[in-house]
Every structure is written in structure tokens, then in C-alpha cells.
Amino acid sequence: MAQQRRADRPRQRRRGSKDRGARASSTAHYRHLVNPFEPLRVLEDGQVERIHQAALEVLADDGIQVLLPEARTLFSAAGATVDEDAQLVRLGPELVAAFLATAPAEFDITPREPMRRVHVGGRQVVMIPAGGPPHATDLDRGKRTGTLEDFENFVRLMQHFDVIHTINPMVEPQDVPLELRHLEMMRTMMTLSDKTPFVYSRGRGKVTDCFEMLRITLGLSEDQFVEKAHCYTVINTNSPRQLDVPMCLGLIQFAEKNQVSIVTPFTLSGAMAPVTLSGALTLQHAEALAGIALAQIVRPGAPVAYGAFTSNVDMRSGAPAFGTPEAVKAALASGQLARHVGLPWRSSAVSTSNIADAQAGYETMMNMMGAVLAGANIIIHAAGWVESGLSASFEKFILDVEMVQMFAEVFQPLDTSEADIAVDAIRSVEPGGHFFGTQHTLERYSTAFYEPIVFTRQNFGQWTEEGSKTATERANPIWKQIVTDFEAPALEDSVREELDAFVERRTSEGGAMPE
Fold first, then answer.
1. What is the DSSP letter of 62?
2. pTM
């Protein structure tokens, strides 16, 4: 823990320092963000209720296809109507209401470092970077197939910045065989980070292995493990109206072990959902409620979040479109729908752009603004996402962290104490004067304003003298310096040895394939 305590100490920063990004991680107040703003509304109360009732009608009359027989059996035993031939599950409004009543409005996720516990719900905001891209990209090597080394370096970056609250699979290490990939990814997360890890729901074997590795790292018995949530997963429905086998298994396993499921329909308006936003939101709502219901059937009170990922497609190509005006409105409406059913909810900050350029910045900011103004509790893909999620960019990770840290500063309360209202300082300066040299300024100037890690405030001359570099070019040495200087949080040798032995044993047994 000594290394961690050293990492937590504030460090001096000088304007213009080339390694400022590598030294700007000591921002402990970023670890637990609270959104002070009232959520914006895009719908009237009556419109929210209309969408909710329409979604209940879809679940009751048309149902959702559930491909896992075990899940259909659970639904049937809980009172749902099941058509085995069509694999359809129909849920009446009263049944849905009963399941929603057991889902917690707020919960904690506790990793091995208690100071990095995240609280989900209320006005808390959990920032999570990109997850799932098969490719990595940077200015030096361009776009390439993701490797274990790329994943390890992204974990180092995620661990470094306090404003990133959990570890996400920012790139898939495709140089590791699929049956062993979960073992290497989990070992990396356990040894290079002490933040909350993500676990893919890709079958019982994979999830069981990851739970066991997490339990080893935390030093918990199986009974102790289920007392609290320690990890999370994302459950994506196969829109429209389908829960496939691995997603059903994930909902069941995570609920059984009291771990967190973020149930997120993949409703892209015009493709997997109606072309109208209200129609897409209705489908999103129905599918989310169905997935949440399954988790509550397995374990009433299991921690779940309402996931919202509704955006649209480009109607000329069919390609996903992110950072659009439609996505912002969908986020605002999703927040209202989640609050209507009393659940914490997840949104996103994503982009369609293929590289870390101006389009990527604008689109990510549009989505982030929609999520923040809508009161999202979890914002996934908040850093590093490019190419509609096909690639994770090292430079964009740094650029996005800058943006997220700026939001974190906006969240900080405004001080209206006598000292900050500064009447005496105002009186001390003659009309037409300046405040640069006042005692009030000298006492506060080093901490008064947010100091950027990659953005520049140089004038044109200074910027030109230093190479006329774009923000993306300035981000390149920053991420590399962080990776080079990285020190992993302390982990007992005995725990590391037990993890290695587990991975070695499961590797010799053939690992686990997806289901």
C-alpha cells in the first residue's frame, strides 16, 4: 500500500511542463463524482408514462424471445407466460412491477482498494472508458489488431487517472486464444489495477473462472464474495426483442453471485429499432425491463442498472451514427424512463469518427453532454472510443480524460464563503487596475483553476516555437510517459502466485470457450 499512498499525494504541476499529463493523476476528489445539476427533461410526464405503458404492452402481448431453456424455465416459474415452440416469454404489467420493486435504486461496487469503491445511483457519476474494440490505434503504429500488450497498457492508463473509475476491456487481446483470453485479461486487471474490474458474460466457464480469480485477489471465501458486488458486466439484448444464450447465462450467474449487470439494449433507430426515436425508446424500455426481470427472478435485490444506448444509423449506409442530435435526445429521455422505474442508469460517450480528430471530439462531447445533462449514473465509453467502437485510441484516451476531468471540475461546488466572495480583494484594487499581484490572488493562483493535461493555452508564437502540434500529437508522448513510469499497486506475492497457479491450471485444462 505504500506505493499507492505515494501515488495519492498531490504533486506540483508547472504550466507548460512536457510531462504534466504523467503527473496529473493525483486528483483524489475525482474518485467519487456527484452531479449537482437537475436532470434536463425532453419529455412531459405524460409522455414518459405513455412510452412506459407501450413497453409493458409489448412485453405482455408480443413478449421477448429467450433462447436459453433454463431462463425460460425461470420465467415460467415466476409467473410469466412461456411459448416453448417460439421461445417467447410474455410478462404482464403486474409481474414487471413486482420485479422492479425488488431491484435496488442504489448500490456499491467494492474493489480490492476500498478507496476506489464506486457508488451507483442517486447523483453519483461513474466514468468508464471504452470497452470491447478488437483493434488498437496510435500515432506511431496506426490501426492494428489488439494485443495483450495493448490491453496491459490501457489498464495502466485506466489505473493512472482517478477520474476513470473502473477497468473496462478497452481492447480485445486477439493474440491470446479465445478459450484463454479471459484468464489473461483477468490476471492483467488483478495485477495492474486495484479498481473495479469488468467481466464479460460469455458463458458459465469464463464467468466462473473470472469470479474465482477475483475472489483469490480479494482474499474472500465464496460466502464472503456474494455479500457485496465486486465487478460488473454489460448485458446487451439482441434487438429487437431477443435475449441470447450467453446474455441469459450472464444475467443468471451475476445475479446468483450478487454482482452487477448493466442491462443495455442495442437499439439503433432505423436498423434494430424503429426509425422514430419514441419507437426506439419503447423497444429499449421493454428489452431492459425484461433483462432486469430475469436478474430479479434469480435473486431479488440483485444489483442491476438500466442501460441506454439508443442512437441512430446513417440511412444511406446503414452504419451506426454516434454523437448525433438524436442520441442526445435519446439520452435525455432514457434518464426520465430510468427514473420513472426507480433504477440507476447507464449512458455512453461515443463517436463515429475513424480517428482522434475534431469530429471525434465533437461527437464524444455531444454524447457526454447528453449523458451528464440527463443525469446518467454510469457513462461507458467515456475515453478512447473511435471508429464506432471498432478501435481504441491511445491518444483519444488522453484527450477524453481531459474532457472528463473538466466535467469533474464543473461538478465541484462553487464556494461562496466570505473569503471567496472576496469583497476585500475587490476593494484593494483601484478602478481600471488588475488582480495579478493582490494577496488574494497570490494565495490562490496555483490551485484556483483547472490545469489541463494536454490542451494548451499558449499563444500562437509559443505554440509555433514548440512545433505547432495538434492536441492529438501532444497526447502521444503523454500516454507513453504514463505507461513507462507506471507502478502497479501493491499485491502480495502469495496472491500473485495463487493467481498464476490458477491460470496455469485452467490453461492446462483448456480454459473455457464462449457459449
1. I
2. 0.94
